[in-house]
Amino acid sequence: MKDTTPIQLKEIGLKITPQRQAILKLLKGNETHPSAESIYSEISKKFPGISFATVYNTLSKLIEAGEIRELDIDPNKRRFDPCVAPHTHFYCQACGNIFDISHDFHLPLTIKRIDGHQVDVVQLNLKGVCKNCRKIP
Amino acid sequence: MKDTTPIQLKEIGLKITPQRQAILKLLKGNETHPSAESIYSEISKKFPGISFATVYNTLSKLIEAGEIRELDIDPNKRRFDPCVAPHTHFYCQACGNIFDISHDFHLPLTIKRIDGHQVDVVQLNLKGVCKNCRKIP
DNA sequence: TCATAAATTATAATAATTATAAAATAAGAA
DNA sequence: TTCTTATTTTATAATTATTATAATTTATGA
């Protein structure tokens, strides 16, 4: 899902720094569900000095502010999605890529309580072999 | 979901070792969705010499054989479920416990293809604050 | 311009998992 | 039962992702 809603750092109480602006620019409309590592290496091209801590810190603050989401789908690392609207993801166990699935599975997105537990997040994950990897035997 | 189906090591081409038997015994009917660490420390009581590699190796083989499932719900570690029948899980972001949810969300469990991708796994994850943690302010 | 809280960096530490190689063992054959 | 061999286990080191720490730098508002 492409989400190009601009994130206003100031409005979520964060200082505007060039590093953060670069991270936001990279995230905006990004549909690759990047990991911290891929964000770091991309940003490094423009900011050779940026540190991993900055990437993780910024991502944590953005999650806290509800501006991005973290996905629990890649067993190896954290993956981030700038699109916070609920939608299904497909994880390819061959290449590790994550694809957005726009098909509506009619999930109970408004459920607030189940078995006495308070529900804050609902995510449907599909896993298998993606379109591209299926071609390669 | 309690699954007490006995796992026959021999039938899945694995040698019967005391360590593996202990791991299987611990897994059978276990509804706590243990991590490798919790399995290791539990087994260590009976087998003080067991190594982490054995735990991970055994779990990998059991997953390969389709005898247990791995959950993508705990952002910090791998969690395992001896019950392979599809069902929903709830992860408590406060205590880290995972609960089985028996409510039927009518998931498309038989879907084999979507957007050209081959679907092998469908999992619905709920996250929030569990029953017990809600009581404690 | 200044003061200050916040952010960034370099670095070290931690936690989970995987790899390696030597020693031990299960299991089938003799 | 003993032997043989492939498998398994163990000890250990290595790797990977992430988090913590503390010193330095910087954004921001006075």
Characterize this entry briefly.
Chain A is α+β, with helices and mostly antiparallel strands and 137 residues long.
What does this structure look like?
- Two copies of one chain form a homodimer.
- The first copy, chain A, is α+β, with helices and mostly antiparallel strands.
- Chain A has two domains: 10-79, Arc Repressor Mutant, subunit A; 85-135, Dna Ligase, domain 1 (2-Layer Sandwich).
- Helix content of chain A is 28%, strand content 22%.
- Chain A has four helices and six strands.
- In chain A, a hairpin with a 5-residue loop joins strand 3 and strand 4.
- Chain A is globular, with a radius of gyration of 16 Å.
- Chain A starts with 17 loop residues before the first helix and ends with a helix.
- Chain A binds chain B through residues 70, 72-75, 78, 90-93, 99, 101, 103, 105-108, 111, 114-131, 134, and chain B through 70, 72-75, 78, 90-93, 99, 101, 103, 105-108, 111, 114-131, 134.
- Strand 6 (117-129) of chain A pairs antiparallel with strand 6 of chain B.
- The first copy, chain A, binds a DNA duplex (30 and 30 nucleotides) through residues 14-17, 19-20, 35-37, 49-54, 56-58, 76-78.
List the helices and strands and how they pair.
The structure is a homodimer of 137-residue chains.
Chain A: H1 18-27, H2 36-46, H3 52-64, E1 69-71, E2 79-81, E3 88-92, E4 98-101, E5 113-114, E6 117-129, H4 131-135
Parallel strand pairs in A: 3-6
Antiparallel strand pairs in A: 1-2, 3-4, 5-6
The first copy, chain A, binds a DNA duplex (30 and 30 nucleotides) through α3.
